[in-house]
Design a protein that fits this description.
The complex is a heterodimer of chains A (about 650) and B (about 500).
Chain A (H helix, E strand, L loop, with lengths): L5 H26 L1 H28 L4 E11 L2 E9 L1 H24 L6 H20 L3 H19 L6 H32 L4 H7 L7 E5 L2 E4 H16 L8 H4 L5 H10 L4 H8 L1 H4 L3 H24 L3 H21 L3 H28 L17 H15 L5 H15 L5 H27 L7 H6 L5 H27 L15 H7 L4 H10 L1 H19 L3 H8 L1 H8 L4 H51 L4 H20 L2
Antiparallel strand pairs in A: 1-2, 3-4
Helix pairs in contact in A: 1-2, 1-4, 2-3, 2-4, 3-4, 3-10, 3-15, 3-20, 4-5, 5-6, 6-8, 8-11, 8-13, 10-15, 11-15, 13-14, 13-18, 14-15, 14-17, 14-18, 15-16, 15-17, 15-20, 16-18, 16-20, 17-18, 17-20, 17-21, 18-23
Chain B lengths: L6 H18 L6 H24 L9 E9 L4 E7 L4 H17 L8 H20 L3 H10 L1 H11 L4 H30 L4 H6 L4 H18 L8 H8 L2 H26 L1 H6 L1 H20 L4 H20 L4 H32 L10 H4 L1 H14 L6 H16 L1 H8 L1 H16 L7 H4 L6 H19 L2 H19 L4
Antiparallel strand pairs in B: 1-2
Helix pairs in contact in B: 1-2, 1-4, 2-3, 2-4, 3-4, 3-11, 3-15, 3-22, 4-5, 4-6, 4-11, 5-7, 6-7, 7-9, 7-10, 9-11, 10-14, 11-14, 11-15, 11-23, 13-14, 13-20, 14-15, 14-18, 14-20, 15-17, 15-18, 15-22, 15-23, 17-20, 17-22, 18-19, 18-22
The chains are: A mainly alpha (about 650), B mainly alpha (about 500).
């Protein structure tokens, strides 16, 4: 073991990928592809090794760290700093982020093989890893916001990576702006914290929070709202943007315009879970506002169910997985809303593994199909791509929550937690997450069956060239399949019932649903056995069965169903017309309003009437006055006489 | 007598004398002499201003590097110079920007080269004079004299509609300034002095203060510019040559904001409080209204001009919420805006030099031909959108924190810039830079050369350093801002 100071190690973890990003970005064009992917992968590998084998064991040994790296700025006597908080929550996030990132880096060598922007891509994803690490390692709100915006920037750059595609550059602008709407709330939340807590440091804020439970904020004269509720909801607006919760979800499906590796890394496994992480990190605040928790719960439930439904009718393989991601993010939010923060983070972790796996597997199929993403043109891939096929099965079972795959443990716990929750809205949420299980299984296995089973539906040329992807693609698939299978099984007990999160997550006794579940917990065997008899499993199995009936056994049925339920089908296919609404109301509305202010306000009124008008007025007056200076003596004499008369009259009648 | 005692005079008169020398090189056949000479003078001036930073004592609010000599004794007008933490960074920004402007003009300007470069050098000296004058009449002389070179720059090297723009610029700013002079004369009769620091201590009644505040406002609001006296700026920017736009945006707009801090707040504290509602309202209108107007601009320079007005709205908002975060945020925003808007105008200049168009619709897919340029512009666009890690974030963040203390709704309105700023900047970026090559002109574009890389790199470093570590900038201003706040919060009634 190297004798390095822990603080140095904490610094090294984000700086290693940053170095990789900078070198790949500045020198990659000169030194070539090999150099670019070597430095980027090396940087991320160092970060992963240190996180998994140094930081995590250190945290498990009970060590914590909360310290400042440097003072960013001081204003009004309140310092704003860049610093790290290393606790179990951070350590877990660090391992998940760096592990998935490493897999995606390796996979990229294969996926982006023919792309002219190869070096640029590596520079971006290494930069992403740095930003995400700064976000999760932060010990204060300022740096959290830095990381928050930095991952948004990289996401923007990567969605628009193929910048000559109109759809891509539309999608990245949309993603950035929708996220900015979320950040708008987030920043106001931070400003409120700064004002009322006098600090941006987590520890200081959490320490003061209980004293401010009764504090109110005057929204309008006569309207007072609870301060903590306002703060928590403002912060949650940020989470809704980043973690794509309804109604700020619209950017995530479009983000699939980016290359598949980043769909896996950024838009499934890590960045989009930042909102979930943030709420969990803020548990000492959220615990003090049941209203805010209810909001989180209900928004999450709506997202979980309704976004899953959309996934059922999509035909683009990446979009199916994207809607699945939306739905699963909703599940995580539901867990947080039910005060089961640990469960939310647990699902974040298992989801990171199996969703990255599903995306990379989908990408593998897309490579084989020569970048065709429509599942109606796939079919029968199982015999050509055995490794992709098997790993996709693992991912699908995990996503559908079939025991003992990873997703089963996390999803079952979420459903249980909501079941025990007594918050307003928990009844609706419970129904939504239960219904969501059926929907999840349906769209997952619809995709699996249509892609890998049945008759091949692609053209002869593509079919002729079908083959398994190279090792740089399949190895990451296998690496991700292992935790997708095992992670739940292996870490379930210590993480949820073993007090892993300890002081990192705070739950009030009245909200402690996980604790109540833990009291009834009798070990892994009974838990699985119980799971096999419970409603979620039955629903998942029903979803699987229905997918089998519709897409394998009676493949003509879906067409008939579509005819029968045209209205529902169209609403789902068009994603509830949310894009059309936003485009019409917000995008066109803002432009029309801006044009009005410009043409009427600036050009017509201010410039036309006031500025040029006064210039014209001066011109007019002087042109009138000019007539007086006629040059004829008798005109002047007349004017003088008139003046004298007027003066005399004035003095006489004063 | 040490040179160090006359640093401010040096920073003022070196570029002015140098400008005259550059003029003396003569016609365009001698441009090869005029260019290096102008560059050397601008670099020398920049180095002459550096000791102001290194020798600056951030722990005192008293004026430093003071020079004081009688000028017109009959009227008690003095040649009195000095700086504090409020003016220091603005002087450095001026000398830094001028070097970049000279470099940017190197190849682009081929007609009346010596006159063009001389105008910028002379203007540099006058602007430094504005930021360091401690005598009201001296200030006024610099303030008005500065208009002349800028008037000439727009009027001679400008675009098609340059005469309208130049006259609009001149009349707008001149009319405002005359009222300021009236206020100075009134203050002189009250105090028998033109010393700005004496004005600070002068007792004034509320009505007097309100009237003086309004007179100052006429001068400063036009310069900033604040809504609704902003319409000269888009015209001036569109017609001005690149260098003119850079100096206009980076430095000239700061004069008005500086005036609020040097004159309005300390001389008329009660008047400032009395009319703070108006200032805040106008600032927020600038942020929201102008943000929307910027969204629909079709000319890149106009878009950046409108974006400047919105960003300056943050500055004036910060000043009139009367807390340290607000004023320091406003000051930081001024410096940052100098870097970012300067960089954006230079970037438009880079494109204009190649395509001779500023219209967004004439572009598209520039990244295919100019990847390095596209990367620079990405950075500056993000800074303009206030992305954390760039200088654009720091000021906006502090002002939002400060305005939340005054009233949550101020912060709410101000924070909409997060959305609008990103929308107009990135939408423009998308249409100009991204996409497939739009036409045969774009297809022939060449990426930036070494000269262009020099000034863009210098600004990129400035933007990143200030974004990642604003502390050294903030440190220079704490004491002065604290002192100013005390003045602004102490009633004179």
């Amino acid at each position: 073991m190297l004798d390095l100071d822990m603080t140095t190690i904490y610094l090294l973890v984000p700086l290693a990928p940053l170095t990789g990003a900078v070198l790949a970005g500045l020198l990659g064009w000169k030194l070539g592809r090999g150099f670019a992917h070597t430095v980027a992968i090396l940087g991320v590998a160092v970060a992963f090794a240190l996180s998994a084998f140094v930081v995590l064991p250190d945290v498990l040994a009970g060590n914590r760290f909360n310290g400042t790296v440097y003072t960013w700025g001081v204003s009004g006597g309140i310092p704003m700093e860049v610093g790290f908080l290393i606790d179990p929550l951070t350590a877990l996030m660090m391992v998940v982020v760096t592990f998935v990132s490493l897999c995606v880096h390796v996979y990229t060598i294969g996926y982006m093989h023919d792309d002219p922007g190869y070096q640029r891509f590596f520079s971006y994803i290494a930069l992403f890893t740095f930003s995400m690490l700064m976000l999760v390692m932060s010990n204060n709100f300022l740096q959290l916001f830095f990381g928050w915006e930095a991952v948004g920037l990289v996401s923007y750059l990567l969605i628009g990576f193929w910048f000559t595609r109109d759809t891509a550059i539309h999608a990245n602008l949309k993603a950035f702006l929708v996220n900015r709407v979320g950040d708008f709330g987030f920043l106001l939340g931070i400003a409120a914290i700064y004002l009322y807590f006098g600090s941006l440091d987590y520890a200081a804020v959490f320490a003061v929070a209980p004293q401010l439970v009764q504090q109110t904020l005057t929204i309008m004269p006569g309207v007072d709202w609870n301060l903590l509720t306002v703060i928590c909801i403002l912060l949650f607006v940020g989470a809704m943007g980043k973690s794509a919760q309804v109604p700020l979800h619209v950017w995530l499906p479009d983000s699939m315009e980016g290359p598949t590796p980043i769909s896996a890394l950024i838009h499934a496994a890590t960045m989009v879970t930042a909102g979930v992480f943030m709420v969990a990190r803020m548990s000492p605040l959220y615990e003090l506002s049941e209203t805010a928790l209810s909001v989180v719960l209900v928004i999450g439930a709506i997202t979980a169910f309704f976004m899953g439904l959309v996934g059922v009718v999509q035909n683009d393989i990446k979009r199916i997985v994207a809607y699945s991601t939306l739905s699963q993010l909703g599940y995580m939010m539901v867990a947080l809303g039910a005060s089961a923060y640990a469960v939310g983070i647990f699902h974040l972790m298992t989801h990171a593994f199996f969703k990255a796996l599903l995306f990379l597997g989908a990408g593998s199929a897309i490579i084989a199909m020569h970048h065709e993403q429509d599942i109606r043109k796939m079919g029968g891939l199982k015999k050509y791509m055995p490794i992709t096929f098997v790993t996709m099965w693992v991912g699908s079972l995990a996503l559908a929550g079939i025991p003992p795959f990873a997703g089963f443990f996390s999803k079952d716990m979420i459903i249980e937690a909501v079941h025990y929750s007594t918050l307003p809205g928990s009844g609706v949420a419970y129904a939504a997450v239960l219904g969501g299980v059926f929907v999840t299984a349906l769209y997952t296995f619809r995709m699996l069956f249509l892609v890998f089973y049945g008759k091949p539906r692609m053209d002869e040329h593509t079919k002729h060239h079908l083959h398994e992807s190279p090792w740089v693609v399949t190895v990451p698939l296998v690496l991700l399949a292992i935790p997708s299978f095992l992670a739940g099984f292996m870490t379930f007990e210590p993480v949820l019932f073993g007090g892993y999160f300890a002081e990192a997550i705070k739950v009030l006794p009245g909200h402690d649903v996980v604790g109540r579940i833990a009291r009834g917990y009798q070990g892994m065997g009974p838990f699985i056995a119980h799971g096999l008899q419970a409603a979620p499993f039955v629903l998942a199995a029903a979803g699987m069965l229905l997918a089998w009936l519709l897409y394998l056994r009676y493949p003509h049925l879906p067409d008939q169903l579509r005819e029968r339920a045209k209205l529902v089908y169209n609403v789902l296919l068009n994603k509830y017309y949310a894009d059309e609404f936003n485009e019409f109301v917000f995008a066109r509305g803002a432009r029309a309003f801006g044009r009005l202010l410009w043409k009427i306000g600036d050009v017509r009124l201010i410039d036309g009437l006031a500025v040029n008008g006064s210039a014209r007025l001066v011109g007019w007056v002087s042109s009138m006055v000019r007539h007086v200076q006629s040059g004829y003596v008798y005109h002047y004499a007349f004017a003088m006489i008139l003046g004298v008369f007027l003066l005399i009259t004035f003095f006489l009648h004063r | 007598m040490m040179l160090a005692d006359y640093l401010l005079s040096l920073a003022i008169w070196l570029p002015i004398a140098g400008g005259v020398a550059v003029l003396a090189t003569g016609g365009d056949d001698r441009a090869h002499v005029a260019r290096p000479l102008a560059l050397a003078i601008s670099i020398l001036t920049f180095f002459a201003t550096l000791p102001l930073y290194t020798g600056f004592n951030p722990h005192t609010a008293t004026m430093q590097f003071v020079e004081d000599a009688p000028w017109i004794e009959a009227l008690a007008i003095r040649y009195h110079l000095g700086i504090d933490g409020i003016s220091l960074l603005l002087i450095l920004l001026t000398s830094f920007s001028t070097v970049l402007v000279i470099v940017s003009a190197w190849i682009v300007i081929q007609k009346k080269v010596a006159q063009y470069l001389a105008a910028f050098l002379i203007m540099e000296g006058l602007m430094i004079g504005v930021f360091s004058a401690l005598d009201a009449i001296l200030f006024y002389v610099f303030w008005e004299a500065m208009l002349v070179p800028m008037f000439i720059i727009i009027g001679l090297w400008g675009g098609a509609n340059r005469i309208y723009a130049a006259i609009k610029f001149f009349l707008y700013t001149f009319i405002g300034s005359v009222l300021m002079l009236v206020a100075f004369i009134y203050l002189y009769y009250q105090s028998n002095s033109f010393e700005i620091l004496t004005f600070h201590a002068l007792k004034l009644g509320l009505t007097e203060q309100v009237l003086i505040f309004l007179a100052f406002l006429a001068a400063f609001a036009v310069k900033v510019p604040m809504w609704p006296v902003h319409t000269w700026l888009p015209d001036a920017h569109v017609e001005a040559p690149t260098g003119g736009s850079v100096i206009l945006a980076a430095i000239m707009l700061k004069m008005g904001a500086y005036g609020f801090l040097r004159f309005s707040l300390p001389i008329t504290p009660d008047g400032s409080h009395e009319l703070a509602w108006l200032m805040i309202a106008l600032s927020l209108v600038a942020v929201v209204y102008i943000g929307l107007v910027a969204l629909v601009q079709e000319d890149m320079k106009k878009l950046i001009a409108y974006s400047s007005i919105a960003h300056m709205g943050f500055v004036t908002l910060g000043f009139f919420i009367f807390n340290a975060q607000g004023i320091e945020g406003g000051l930081i925003q001024m410096i940052s805006h100098g870097f970012v808007s300067g960089a954006l105008f230079l970037c438009v200049g880079v494109l204009y030099d190649r395509m001779h168009s500023r219209l967004i619709k004439d572009y598209g897919g520039v990244a295919n031909r100019m990847p390095v340029f596209a990367s620079f512009l990405m950075l500056f666009a993000m800074a303009n959108a206030g992305l954390p890690g760039t200088s654009g974030f720091v000021g906006e963040f502090l002002v939002i924190l400060g305005s939340f203390q005054a009233n949550g709704w101020y912060a709410f309105a101000a924070a909409t810039t997060l959305i609008f700023g990103a929308a107009y900047t990135l939408w423009m970026y998308k249409r100009v830079i991204f996409g497939t090559v739009a036409n045969e002109h774009v297809a022939t574009l060449n990426d930036i050369d070494a000269r262009e890389a020099v000034f863009l790199t210098a600004l990129a470093i400035a933007v990143l350093v200030m974004g990642l570590w604003p502390q050294p900038f903030l440190d220079t201003m704490h004491t002065s801002v604290e002192h100013l706040l005390k003045q602004a919060m102490t009633s004179k009634l």
